[in-house]
Amino acid sequence: MSHKYDHHGHIMLPSLDARSKMKLLLAYLFAIWPLANAAAGSERVLWVANCGDTVDGLPAGMGDTFGDLNSPVVTDINSIYAGSTYTVAYVPTTSLATWSYTTSGGYTFLVSPHNPATCTPYADGGTGTLQPSVAATATWDTKVLPSAHGQSTNVPLPPTWTAPAGTSTTEAAAPTGIAVSGTTRTGTPRTGTAPTGTAPTGAVTMGQQSVAYWGQNGGGILENNDLAHYCSNGAGIDVVVLSFLFQYGSGNRIPFGNIGQSCTIVSSGEGQQCEALAAAIETCKSNGVKVIISLGGSRGAYSLSSQDEAEAIGQNLWDAYGNTKNTGRVPRPFGKTFVDGWDFDIESNSGNEYYGFLIAKLRSNFASDSENRYFITGAPQCPVPEPNMGQIISKAKFDYLWIQFYNNPSCSVDGTINFEDWKTFVAKTPSACAKLFIGVPAHPLAANGVGTGARYYLEPYKLASLVGQYRDDPAFGGVMMWSAGFSDANLNNQCTYAQEAKRVLTNGKIC
């Protein structure tokens, strides 16, 4: 990836001890008090906990914050609601209280099925071995959402699981009157059809996201310099990756670079003209769009020379861009604003044996901010073995891998991609649970900045066909695009390429 021209070129609860029983009782008391005193604004909702995963002896989601939930939750929900009739109300925030799940697009989905299917659990990050259904649901007549941070919930009661009966779905926007970050959001319901199977592939696709890099382009293309433009409702982007911090190592323990057309981060770590970008990041996050900052690129000057250097850089990345609550020891280019994760687009192999230490050090800080969830992502090229990032992935835990299926003829989208090879490879690494994304150029010029890269560009209908081959694969995470600016410059029926990709992920159709 070039910073100038190309991207990489029912409830069945477990036995509860006294502590857990007390926790459940307290959860009930805290839940019914506000309900008894609540005003209008109610709605009938059925909630579900995931199959088998536990936190402090209770199914994850019961009295525990959303931050404790992990990726199998998304798979579980997909299984539970396959072929069922349900209503989805979503609130664009990632900070709701208990009984919520973050899925597609960083949205929190409150799912209300009328006929939930039998749960096929993927417990504790397992690989799909069937276990007794322990999916937990709860029904109540009044649910009050006084604010995004003051959600009232009820304690679940045992439901009766039935076979799915019907496939129609209704997908509604956030109910009128729910305050989200100071804004009351309303929406118009949309209808669709969800097929039967292991996961819904119709109106709601959970966990499948569209990702776009922003900040560098090439080929004569400039992105909109206002990042918030790409985080507006309908922009089609769920995750935006800021590119790039492209210099570090060789004595420089604070990564630096330029992001967008205005924000420059100098070698001391100070940000210059980055205030507008910081404000835009806040807008994106309030709209449910994840913001991740990327290191590397194909034309950067970066390397690691020791474990000590790697760990120092990892700590500095947290201090500069994590939610340190002002405890960090390096400059913060975005001030109090913090990102949702760190991306590694490593396209050289200098010191790659040390990145595991960098990422481990970075991850060691995540527990200090349990209110937020952070991600480690990577953008490897498609060959397996991968010459630059293969060793890194073998030693470090990644949450998302957006694989560059272009610029390498043997495994690119113009032929046959090696998605199965990647599944086999990551299954033997700390990243075994990582979601794999199909990375594509968003414009005929995006692959390498010139016309010769057009062979790697997929027209929207071809993208839909390719995604259709993998959308039911539990490992499939979505589509990554290089880049936001190229997407803007590629309109099809008044849709940008990012909007096309999001429609493909949502309902399999193009504009």
Automatic annotation (TrEMBL):
Residues 179-202 are annotated as: Disordered. InterPro entries: GH, Glyco_hydro18_cat, Glycosyl_Hydrlase18_Chitinase. It comes from the Eukaryota. GO terms for molecular function: chitin binding; chitinase activity. GO terms for cellular component: extracellular region. Residues 182-202 have a biased composition (Low complexity). Keywords: Chitin-binding, Glycoprotein, Glycosidase, Hydrolase, Signal, Virulence. GO terms for biological process: carbohydrate metabolic process. Residues 208-508 form the GH18 domain. Pfam families: Glyco_hydro_18. Residues 1-38 form the signal peptide. This is Class III chitinase ChiA2. It comes from Metarhizium anisopliae (strain ARSEF 549).
